[in-house]
Design a protein that fits this description.
This protein is 62% helix and 4% strand. The chain has 181 residues and is mainly alpha-helical. The longest helix is centred in the middle third of the chain and has 31 residues.
């Protein structure tokens, strides 16, 4: 690319942690630095996990409910708890996340240290997993963020969706069904 453009190209790599162990993340950063000027792998499973901030979600929901109460003239109060929703979701996903940590650690270790004991690898993966599962902040970093946000979106009602977005969806549906003239 640099030869085609006739000059140096700066490259950056920003990656999800996914279920990579610390050793794999370090190896990836080292490899990427051979052709990237900036490399980072954030601690969260995926970028959506940055949005799993229960206090902010509760504030936004409370504001939305208050606005709706003013519009319809009814006294409505927001009384949900995003932390509890995410904790319930995390609880349901614990076995899945554990399995992902184990599988990914084994894959990495087999390719980099094929003579290491399976038991040692599993133990290290479980210790790392338990460390990330110890409190809600790190737990919310490890769960599948897209799915967690989806669980909240699944609880939405049509009345929760802004009328403008409803119109855009209707227009796109109509557009998708139209024939080319």
């Amino acid at each position: 690319m640099e030869a085609t453009l006739g000059g140096r190209v700066l490259a950056a790599a920003i990656l999800d942690k996914d279920y990579r162990c610390d050793g794999e993340r370090e190896a990836l950063v080292k490899e990427c630095k051979s052709f990237c000027d900036y490399v980072t792998i954030y601690k969260r499973k995926e970028i959506e996990n940055f949005l799993l901030v229960p206090a902010a979600i509760d504030r936004a929901a409370a504001r939305r409910v208050a606005d709706q109460a003013k519009r319809v003239g009814h006294d409505i109060t927001y009384c949900s708890d995003a932390t509890k929703l995410f904790e319930d979701f995390a609880s349901q996903k614990k076995s899945y996340v554990t399995a992902q940590y184990l599988a990914n650690r084994r894959r990495f270790e087999r390719s980099n240290s094929p003579n290491r004991s399976e038991t040692t690898i599993t133990e290290e993966a479980l210790v790392e997993f338990e460390s990330c599962w110890k409190d809600s902040t790190s737990r919310f970093e490890a769960i599948p963020g897209k799915e967690a946000l989806g669980a909240i979106l699944d609880a939405m009602r049509t009345s929760d969706i802004a009328s403008e977005m409803q119109q855009i969806i209707r227009d796109l549906s109509k557009f998708a069904l139209s024939k080319v003239p």
